[in-house]
């Protein structure tokens, strides 16, 4: 089986975790219908307070379920949607994708990868000690952020658990993801 969706999650309220739902509708240029982070301009509370006119490069948050597996092995009980992600995937190295990668999900939806998510201190409120597990430093001193990627909606459509995901890499030199 190839890359696929494990779960989809959305919430109309600004809360850390998002409940799983049966499907989400993504809308081009806006995000997930009914989700608190949908909008053409930034909807995340901290950045919104600084400059509400910024473009919303964080319309849809994706996390790989392999991170949940890793955290469970360390004794943390993390489930899909628990870290605030909208789409939990399996079988894709999300963190290794270059900027501009397109993810075709199901028959219609296309997301475009914009960058890495940088977890905030709220993650330790969700589960004490978790921040140190999801932000680490590798052997050469590079900070590694494991909490998934952010994207914008390129083409509208419905996304369900078990939908296949097709990865389309951008042309030209690939630009590594940075925090958005």
From TrEMBL:
Domain of life of the organism encoding this protein: Bacteria
Ranges in coiled-coil conformation: none
Organism: Kribbella steppae
Matches recorded under Gene3D superfamilies: PK beta-barrel domain-like
PROSITE patterns attached to this UniProt entry: MOSC (PS51340)
Pfam families: MOSC
Protein name: MOSC domain-containing protein YiiM
Domain MOSC residues, every copy: 18-168
Family matches, as PANTHER family: METAL-SULFUR CLUSTER BIOSYNTHESIS PROTEINS YUAD-RELATED (PTHR36930), MOSC DOMAIN-CONTAINING PROTEIN (PTHR36930:SF1)
One MF term in the entry's GO annotations: molybdenum ion binding
Ranges annotated as spanning the membrane: none
InterPro entries: MoCF_Sase_C, MOSC_domain, Pyrv_Knase-like_insert_dom_sf
């Amino acid at each position: 089986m190839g890359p696929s969706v494990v779960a989809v999650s959305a919430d109309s309220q600004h809360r850390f975790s998002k409940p799983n739902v049966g499907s989400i509708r993504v809308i081009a240029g806006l995000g997930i219908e009914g989700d608190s982070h949908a909008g053409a301009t930034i909807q995340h509370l901290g950045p919104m307070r600084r400059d509400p006119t910024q473009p919303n490069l964080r319309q849809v948050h994706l996390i790989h379920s392999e991170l949940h597996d890793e955290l469970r092995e360390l004794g943390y009980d993390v489930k899909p949607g628990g870290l605030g992600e909208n789409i939990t995937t399996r079988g894709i190295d999300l963190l290794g994708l270059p900027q501009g990668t397109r993810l075709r999900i199901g028959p219609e939806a296309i997301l475009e990868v914009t960058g890495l998510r940088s977890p905030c201190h709220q993650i330790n409120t969700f589960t004490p000690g978790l921040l140190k597990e999801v932000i680490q430093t590798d052997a050469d001193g590079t900070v590694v952020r494991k909490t998934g990627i952010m994207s914008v909606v390129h083409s509208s459509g419905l996304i369900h658990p078990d939908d296949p995901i097709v990865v389309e890499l951008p042309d030209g030199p690939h630009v590594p993801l940075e925090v958005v």
